[in-house]
Amino acid sequence: MSARIGPLAGLLTGLVLMLVSALLPAPAAAQQVRLKDLVEFDGVRGNDLIGYGLVVGLAGTGDGLRNTPFTEEIMSSILERLGVNVTGEDFRPRNVAAVMVTAQLPPFARAGARIDVNVAAIGDARSLLGGTLVMTPLNGADGQIYAVAQGSIVASGFQAEGQAAQVTQGVPTSGVIPAGARVEREVDFELNRLSSVRLALRAPDFTTAGRIETVINGEFGRAVAQMLDAGTVVVDIPAAGMRSAAHVLGRIENLAIAPQTRARVVVDHRTGTIVMGADVRISQVAVAQGNLTLQVQEEPIVVQPNPFAEGETVVVPRTRIGAGEDERTGLAELTGGTSLSEIVAGLNALGVSPRDMIDILTSISAAGALHAELVVR
Fold first, then answer.
1. Residues 11, 333: contact at Cβ < 8 Å?
2. What is residue 374's three-state secondary structure?
3. CA distance 351 to 348
4. Which of 202, 236, 257 is where one domain is finished?
5. Are strands 373-376 and 158-161 parallel, antiparallel or unpaired?
6. 120 Cβ partners below 8 Å, 6+ apart?
7. What is the Cα–Cα distance from 352 to 361, expressed in whole angstroms?
């Protein structure tokens, strides 16, 4: 067995960074985005729904009723509502499963509209493939029923098993029912009664909020919008001179805005993923990475007694451990104002692995030379 800690990527030199910087294209201007993709309109939001139901028609992959008694209870309740008395009966079918049903009621959904629902097993069912969800009421946070779900489940994946092994691909214990619920109750909200509408930025930023205010006021030719803080811009409906808030939102939602965001670097140690913004900068700093190598080798020896001799076979452990560090380790100096994209390009040219690159970026941030928010997951 061998393990290698911090493999040497090579000597990171200023010449390499200069060459990479010269080959990289100039940064593009800020991309303009529609207003509707940057903000949430006050009141225009969905509502989460949840319900508890029963799936039938499974091919022997349902709940084991001895381990999930709540499945038997809901099944008995449904049958009794249909006029079938099962009190005291002992039945153990394997073609039913208790599930949790979730959905989102979109804004302005009217009675009779259909919405998608998600279905997930909560018992020990092995698969929901081929199952049908029995009529299930979906409740909102206030306990009221807003939709009723029913239909055939579309589940992905499969599970196969034998006496000594099994294989599972995907998640067969969850699925969806496209347009599987019908809206029965509408959310009481009148958009046209509002005298002002607040725009909530998904990524709060003072510069972006100021630009939104400027663009909206320029669209109407007068002071209609006002920035309250980094995450809120309020639009005065009467000052816009239009009939309703819906007309105002329809006019401004497609306005183009050039958003600004904070410089941020997001790294994920589990997958070795690095995501960075274009505005990340690094001050002058020196970087060196060692190349420590550890080798652990097991070479057990089997000692056997001579023929016709009394004794037992014994395994004698033997371990060889070696440690060393590559002497080619170098110290590289990064000049001030270097962009992170140039640093990463230079490290890639030298063959640095993503995980080593994450360690280097974390060390640069700890040294105070990384001018960006470092988010480590």
1. no
2. strand
3. 5
4. 257
5. unpaired
6. 99, 100, 102, 173, 174
7. 12
Query: Which residues are bridge partners to 177 per DSSP?
Result: 117
| Same domain? 207 vs 334 | no
Q: Which domain holds residue 238?
A: 33-43+192-257
The CA-atom distances, in angstroms, between 281 and each of 54, 146, 176, 286 are: 55, 51, 45, 15
The predicted model scores a pTM of 0.64
Number of domains in the chain: 3
Q: SS3 of 162, please?
A: coil
Tokens encoding 228: 């309250």
Q: Tens digits of per-residue pLDDT, 224-275?
A: 999 999 999 999 999 888 888 888 999 999 999 998 888 888 888 777 777 7
The pLDDT > 70 percentage for the chain reads 71
Per the CB < 8 A criterion, the answer to whether 274 and 361 are in contact is yes
Calculate the alpha carbon distances from 59 to 90, 113, 184, 312 in Å.
20, 32, 32, 55
Pairing of strands 264-268, 373-376: parallel
Q: Are 274 and 354 in contact (CB under 8 A)?
A: yes
- Residue 178 DSSP SS3: strand
* Residue 132 C-alpha from the chain's centroid: 29
127 with 219, same domain? no
3-state secondary structure of 252: helix
Q: What is the CA radius of gyration of the chain?
A: 32
pLDDT, tens only, 295-350: 555 567 777 777 766 667 777 776 565 545 555 445 555 555 566 666 666 666 65
Q: What b/e sequence results for 44-64 when a residue is b if at least 16 CB atoms lie within 10 Å of its CB, and e otherwise?
A: beebebebebbbebbeebbbe
Least confident range of 54-68, 73-87, 136-150: 73-87
**Could you count the other beta carbons within 10 Å of the beta carbon of residue 179?**
11
Six token digits for residue 143: 């306990």
Domain membership flag for residue 314: no
6 secondary structure, DSSP code: S
The span from the CA of 73 to the CA of 12, in Å, is 68
